Amino acid sequence: FKQTIYLVGVFLFFFYLHGGTSSLISTLIIFPVYKTVFRQQIHNTSVHRAVGQLLKEGPAKLYRGVAPPLLMRTLNGTLLFGLQDTLLHQLSLSSQQVILSSALPALAGFGAGLVEAVVFTPFERVQNVLQNGQNDRRVPTLKSVLVRLKAQRPALGYYRALLPITARNTLGSSLYFGLKGPVCAAVEAQGLSPGVSSFISGTLTSMVISLTLYPLSVLVANMQAQMGGEVKGVMACWRMLWESRQRSVALLYRGGSLVILRSCITWGIATAIYDTHQKRSN
């Protein structure tokens, strides 16, 4: 019995470790692109203007705010991949064919996305405050941001925009884990190597997800980036956002091209690294 517990523990450790490692590497590579997209979402600017802002601020500020997303994405990958696999294992044992086996990865992904939203909303809140250049004077350091948010009640502080984040994460995780396996198998059937197939699978899947859920990400960024002022609910914030984009879907999707690039690199790398480690562990 002890040996069985030990083997299960080692098995889960590697799944959680592999998810964290893949997310850490991909986040460091893609952070400048992420910050450019964030500026477009907040200031409603073109990609050239957003890049110009970052270049004007200089290299020293380029990675301002990298600590929260780096920590968040590393822990996020650790939790998301590991918890999804744990839930998938439990569902496989208890479903008794009531649920189609092909739907189990998506269902486990939904559960992992729900936990992810609860755990990581505070990280995203801090990250968005730090990356908003308009907050530089009022809250210039990470410590000052943490002190300011701690003084507010959770719904207005660390857990601002929890509802749209939960909707985005649960839907995104369900689609990702539900689609990446079949897509990878289809690509690998064309004669490509497993590593390349995993990369393409992660790229295509994340591209579909990021474009579908992009409006939610814009809403979250705008709700979380501000400190102080009048606090509005989700629907009121959505109406303000829609009006500020002149009721234009094209303007709402400003930054979408970079989202595709970011998703391709981030999830392509993360999926390839995770699948490679997973196969070596089996």
Instruction: Let me know the average pLDDT.
Output: 81
CATH homology-level superfamily = Mitochondrial carrier domain
Shape: globular
Q: How many helical elements?
A: 11
Percent of residues in helices comes to over 70%
- What's the N-to-C terminus distance? 21 Å
Keywords: Membrane, Mitochondrion, Mitochondrion inner membrane, Repeat, Transmembrane, Transmembrane helix, Transport
Transmembrane segments: 6-34, 251-274
Solcar repeats: 10-90, 100-186, 189-280
Family: Belongs to the mitochondrial carrier (TC 2.A.29) family.
Structure write-up:
- Pfam families: Mito_carr (PF00153).
- It is found in: Mitochondrion inner membrane.
- It is a multi-pass membrane protein.
- The chain is mainly α and 282 residues long.
- It has a single domain, classed as Alpha/alpha barrel (Mitochondrial carrier fold), CATH 1.50.40.
- 79% of the residues lie in helices and 0% in strands.
- The radius of gyration is 20 Å and the shape is globular.
- The N terminus is likely disordered.
